[in-house]
Write a structure and sequence with these properties.
about 130 residues, mainly alpha
């Protein structure tokens, strides 16, 4: 139970980190490149963040050994839905949002995606420091 609770805490922190990164990348884009770059970067960040929220809600709704089959199915459904949602959001943005800065859009997407790696590393380093004391 402790491990499952810790995993959910990390997942929530990843989603929070992605959300904050999405806001920051949009603001930095706004300051450095104007409203077009800021909006494009924020849209790219949202294309990364929203499907991850969907995946987390879908994949982690079941817990426990008795729900093993449901857990596996929900992970596959979450991953598939995340992929479809990401593709659809990119398509919608490129079709409906004119003008758009494609570079800022992809940079925003990439920065928010990197939070999937950064947050767990930061948490692990904090845990390591806590145990070394």
């Amino acid at each position: 139970m402790q491990q499952a609770g810790e995993r959910l805490r990390v997942i929530k922190l990843i989603l929070l980190g992605q959300f904050l990164a999405m806001l920051i990348v949009g603001l930095v884009g706004l300051v450095l490149g104007g409203s077009l770059v800021g909006l494009s970067a924020a849209l790219g960040g949202s294309i990364a963040w929203l499907p991850n929220v969907y995946f987390a809600l879908r994949a982690f709704r079941y817990r426990g050994a008795r729900a093993a089959q449901k857990i596996v199915r929900s992970f596959y459904a979450g991953a598939f839905g995340k992929m479809i949602l990401t593709m659809a959001m990119f398509a919608i943005v490129f079709i409906k949002v004119k003008p758009i800065s494609a570079l800022a859009l992809f940079v925003g997407f990439a920065i928010v995606q990197t939070m999937n790696w950064i947050v767990p590393i930061v948490i692990a380093l904090q845990e390591r420091r806590r145990y070394e004391k």
